[in-house]
Amino acid sequence: MRKLLILVAILLPLTTSTLAEVPKVINYQAKLTDADGVALNGDYDITFSIWDDVTGGTCAWGPETHSSVTVTNGLFDVQLGTITTLGIDFSDSLWVEVEVEGVTLGPREKLGTVPYAFRAIYADTSEYAESSTGDNDWQISGDGTAPDTVYNLNDYVGIGTASPNCKLSVGGDGSFDRAGWFENTTSGGVGLQGKGYRQGVIGEAVASGSDWSEGVRGFSDVASSGYNTGVYGYARNSSDQNTGVYGFASGSSGTKYGGYFKAQDGGTNYGIYATASGGGTNWAGYFSGNGYFSGNVGIGTASPDEELHVHQTLGNVAICLGDFGSGDWKLVRSVGVDFPSGSFGIQKAD
Fold first, then answer.
1. Is 274 in contact with 282 (CB distance < 8 Å)?
2. 24: burial class by Cβ within 10 Å (0-12, 13-18, 19+)?
3. Residue 256 domain-assigned?
4. Is residue 26 pLDDT above 90, yes or no?
5. Element (H, E) at 150
6. Which helix H or strand E contains 128, and what residues bound it?
7. Which residues, in sequence order, are bridge partners of residue 88?
8. Given pLDDT bands bounded at 50, 70 and 90, which one contains residue 316?
9. How far apart are CA 300 and CA 273, in angstroms?
10. In this structure, is residue 89 part of a structural domain?
11. Beta strands 3-10 and 26-33: pairing type?
């Protein structure tokens, strides 16, 4: 009478290069003796099956027969699942039944906890993740001081907030200077890109008091021989109006800036640099309202000597007062009879 003494029945995954290649096999090691406990030697046909109960029940896998298994001093090992795929739900208790040379050995041996690691393979698929049940918050691992800071509510995810109001809401308190940080160090990479039906990115500042607040702040701090841009706006394909960057400020008191631009430090600085081309009408700058300049203003010159410096070539109109039609006045730099050489004069249009 043979009997089987189970030494170990565990899952030992083979070495693989990626998780997707993890084989579903169980390394099964055991010792085979006769009725007197004497270890056997030789080659034996051994059949394995897995059941959902210690006796009776339903066969969940198998039978799988390993032919001519070498037994040395009673010891042998095989890999279950190499012949018949282990397509089993390991979330339930299971037992292994062994048959040697047509003789069923007993009792069945219960699988340990390690084979249930097969379940971890399914964590790679979103279908399994979204079918999970439980409360609406996700516990995260850390130092244990701030559990339950990630929430799932009606398909909305909140980090640092229990009331997410969009697909991803990130919140922080006074201990954080930033609610989120996005970084891409790849050449030509984008740290954060927004795409929306009307607005790609919206920024809002809610601070009160005398401190500065910016809804959206762009900052470029890279040593480069090319162009560095803090905020870049691009709009196209509209038959009405295209606005690359739009600023709006309102309030019942204080000073509001729809756009505030500043350039400083070495080199040549432009607070605002604008170009317009390619259209029927091109305005590099268009203002509706009063304009104030604290420095010199140059028209036709990049080096104005006075508060208003208008530069034009000889004989051409420098300033037109009106529509430059009949009866309007113009300021010209002229040579010849009307004005002394190199001087300016006011002349009425013909």
1. no
2. middle
3. no
4. no
5. strand 150-153
6. helix 126-130
7. none
8. low
9. 15
10. yes
11. antiparallel
Residues 108, 15 share a domain: yes
Q: Is the dihedral of CA 326, 327, 333, 335 positive or negative?
A: positive
What pTM was estimated for this model as a whole? 0.39
> Taking the CB of residue 108, how many other CB atoms lie within 10 A of it?
19
For 178, 263, 276, 310, the CA distances from 284, given in Å and listed in that order, are: 36, 19, 5, 18
Decide if 211 is inside a domain. Answer: no
Four-residue CA torsion sign, 151, 157, 159, 165? negative
* Residue indicated by tokens 């006011």: 346
169/141: higher pLDDT: 169
Which domain covers residue 161, as residue numbers? 134-171
For the chain, how many structural domains are there in total?
3
CA 90 to chain centre: 34
- Please write down the long-range contacts of 66-73, taking CB distance under 8 Å and 24 or more positions apart: 68/43, 68/44, 69/43, 69/44, 69/45, 70/42, 70/43, 71/32, 71/40, 71/41, 71/42, 71/43, 71/44, 72/41, 73/39, 73/41
Chain segment 227-260, per-residue pLDDT in tens: 667 777 777 766 667 777 777 777 777 788 888 8
DSSP letter at 39 equals: B
